[in-house]
Write a structure and sequence with these properties.
The structure is a homodimer of 264-residue chains.
Chain A (H helix, E strand, L loop, with lengths): L5 E9 L16 H13 L6 E2 L8 E11 L5 H11 L4 E9 L11 E10 L12 E3 L5 H9 L3 E4 L14 E12 L2 E8 L6 H13 L7 H8 L14 E7 L17
Parallel strand pairs in A: 3-10, 5-6
Antiparallel strand pairs in A: 1-3, 1-4, 2-3, 5-9, 5-10, 7-8, 8-9
Helix pairs in contact in A: 1-2, 3-4
């Protein structure tokens, strides 16, 4: 049986609340481990799922991308159907497609988009409690917007990465960082070529300090320049954080997931 | 202790997934029963919570309104804080306020707004699975919009109410019925003075039949005129249905809950 090796790309949506993150870990339920188990049932062999990047425990995704190889001849659409039947309802395969053998979900990604969703008010939201982080006090959104501007461009983000981050090069390029005010919601939308470990969460907590008036917006460029993790805010809770989209060169296999313009 | 009787209005948000509806029932956990238990802990007496209307099992609310009476002197804001500390996270008191003794959450309501949220696609959504009803096939939204127009105005809604509905008068006035297309979402927004039992769910399922091409839009006025429950669609699943707002004469104590314009 001289079967051909195939490389299959999965576009994945998940609610991260009940998972210890994307990455397989010993003694913890991960998103990729859960999908790998379903894959094994369908393929009848273990497959290693390679994600575009790790998402932390509790972080959601609308458009995580991963790939794996197999020699099985099951059509991609049937694979998608079979996986969605096996997976728990908080993980959905939005698309499965054959891609060139050289496609690599992490190395080929040229842009990642993350969003933090804040719910601002004296009491948290019941309906959006897993989708938003509750912020008790009002935010100065224009100060946050000004501070966010300091992140845009290519910078050494040493001040904004976990001490446990093992990337050799701390330079990343932030393409845009928008702060949207849609009371009672505030959204932080950030696009970069890639992110260091905990970078989004540390940038967001620093902007939160600015929004709460505990840190002037003008401090942010200085914190960036200092390359000192002690100066930035703590790592913000993962609640309300979403990996929205991962982009690859050329035409997207799947367009950027639509965000509803008026989800109640 | 000649204490004064107070009438207190609560504005309530809840995710209905884990409740057997608003109304207290024997051997079932209801939203109002859960709040009444928390109220008893705070007030040290039983209080009967009177809602603007019943929501069915699984239906959510952004702005349910209810009232109860007490002679306790606890300030309304403290009552709100105490309730939110006691309540499970899927029920949140958005506001508590003293209102005139004659205020009656059901009788005084002049307008109710409901929304159905559909997620249209071959696979359901992971992130919005409790907030949306999954519709597998594409919808003809303009046909649905045309059909929805037939509901607007004062009509005998006998064809669109549960056989178990015990309202004496089957006439209700629908102020507006909008069908919004925001792919992959479709929203049905309906405002009326009041609704008969299951009316929103039966109107929505009939519009869904129209959207799926199983019933021409032009049939809907005829179904309405026939006053025959057999002719309308079945009662649609409650998933994705929300009581958005209840309006009272004069200035609203709490404005219509904002729906995010871009919740991911």
């Amino acid at each position: 049986m001289g079967r051909k090796l195939r490389n299959i790309r999965l576009d994945i949506e998940y609610e991260g609340t009940h998972y210890h993150g994307w990455q397989v870990q010993a003694n913890a339920v991960s998103v990729s481990g859960t999908i790998e188990e379903a894959l094994e049932q369908v393929l009848q062999h273990r497959a290693r799922l390679l994600g575009s990047g790790r998402t932390d425990a509790g972080v959601h995704a609308l458009g995580q991308v991963a790939n794996f190889t197999t020699e099985r001849e099951i059509p991609a659409e049937n694979l998608q159907l079979a996986l969605n039947r096996l997976l728990p309802r908080d993980i959905v395969i939005r698309r499965a497609a054959d891609v060139p053998l050289e496609f690599h979900a992490r190395r080929d990604a040229i842009e990642r988009t993350y969003r933090y969703q804040f719910f601002v008010g004296s009491h948290p939201s019941a309906l959006y409690r897993t989708l938003t982080l509750h912020i008790r006090r009002p935010l100065n959104v224009s100060a946050m917007r000004q501070a966010a501007g300091a992140f845009v461009g290519s910078h050494d983000f040493t001040s904004f990465r976990s001490r446990h981050c093992d990337a050799e090069n701390p330079v990343r390029t932030v393409f845009s960082f928008d702060v949207l005010n849609d009371p009672p919601f505030v959204f932080l939308d950030v696009k970069a070529n890639a992110f260091l470990r905990n970078q989004v969460r540390i940038m967001a907590s620093t902007l939160l300090e600015v929004g709460l008036g505990r840190c002037p917006a003008s401090d942010v460029p200085r914190i960036l320049e200092a390359k000192n993790r002690d100066l930035a805010g703590p790592t913000l809770k993962p609640r309300g954080l979403l990996l929205v989209h991962v982009r690859y060169p050329g035409q997207d296999a799947i367009p950027m997931p639509r965000t509803p313009s008026s989800l109640a």
